Amino acid sequence: MMGPAHSLSGAAAWLGVGAATAAAGHAMPWPVLVVGALISAGAALAPDLDHKSATISRAFGPVSRALCGLVDDLSHAVYKATRGPGDPRRNGGHRTLTHTWLWAVLIGAGASAAAMFGGRWAVLGILFVHVVLAVEGLLWRAARMSSDVLVWLLGAAGAWIMAGILDKPGNGSDWLFSGSGQEYLWLGLPIVLGALVHDIGDALTVSGCPILWPIPLGRKRWYPLGPPKAMRFRAGSWVELKVLMPVFMVLGGIGAAGALDVI
């Protein structure tokens, strides 16, 4: 799928989690709901770090473009080193390593560890990166028309404000993990969710997605999971733009209403 659909699906997924936790009697504080939705929306773009033309490659200028090139090379190298006898040869690493459950879990765990041990500046860095990505995905038309510096300033201001709100007692810095020194440990959860939702979205497209790697299926270690081919669509097609994106918006609204106990 394209960037806007990925970001919408990531935000909707976290809002759905918020509705589920509220129904289970463990409602999220509203700052966790909002910040988590933004992080998940941004994280839903991150698996495309292996694609030099993806939205994320433009988000941070030369830095993100260089990083995408490195991740593409790394992904391709891992693919070549681990492919099974039924896996085809490839010329690049797109939709390989970064489009797996293992990558999602490792990235989320790394973010949680950074937030817990790196202190306030690590939290601000995580928030900044994901707010910028959320703006690039959710407000992509405005982001394309404005300068990168304005988007970065918005991301920095948003990160600073959100961290200040979360730090206040009862607002969620210690949500889910309340032990001493475990503040912000939950930040990895919307990152994992966003990455997995991205992979599921890509699995619906023509090429499928090797979400289960390194678990082999038959003679393939990089098996492209997806529904029957008659149910798949091309990225950017009318199905994505006219059907899935409105569905994600509606589901997000329902999730937010349930999480905030409006319905």
Tell me about this structure:
The chain is mainly alpha-helical and 263 residues long. Helix content is 62%, strand content 0%. The protein contains 9 helices and no strands. The longest helix has 38 residues, at 101-138. It is globular, with a radius of gyration of 18 Å. The chain starts with a helix and ends with a helix.
Layout: helices, strands, pairs:
Elements: H1 3-23, H2 30-43, H3 55-59, H4 62-82, H5 101-138, H6 140-145, H7 148-167, H8 188-203, H9 238-259
Helix pairs in contact: 1-2, 1-5, 1-8, 1-9, 2-5, 2-8, 5-7, 5-8
pLDDT < 50 runs, ≥5 residues: none
SSE arrangement, N to C: HHHHHHHHH
Mind telling me the C-alpha Rg? 18 Å
Average pLDDT, all residues = 91
Sheet/helix structural class: mainly alpha
Most strands sheet: none
The helical percent reads: 55-70%
- The quaternary state of the protein chains shown equals single chain
The strand count comes to: 0
**How far is it from the N-terminal to the C-terminal residue, by CA?**
31 Å
Count the DSSP helices. Answer: 9
What share of residues are in beta strands? under 5%
Overall geometric form: globular
How would you concisely characterize the structure shown here?
By secondary structure, the protein is mainly α. 62% of the residues lie in helices and 0% in strands. The protein has helices at residues 3-23, 30-43, 55-59, 62-82, 101-138, 140-145, 148-167, 188-203, 238-259.
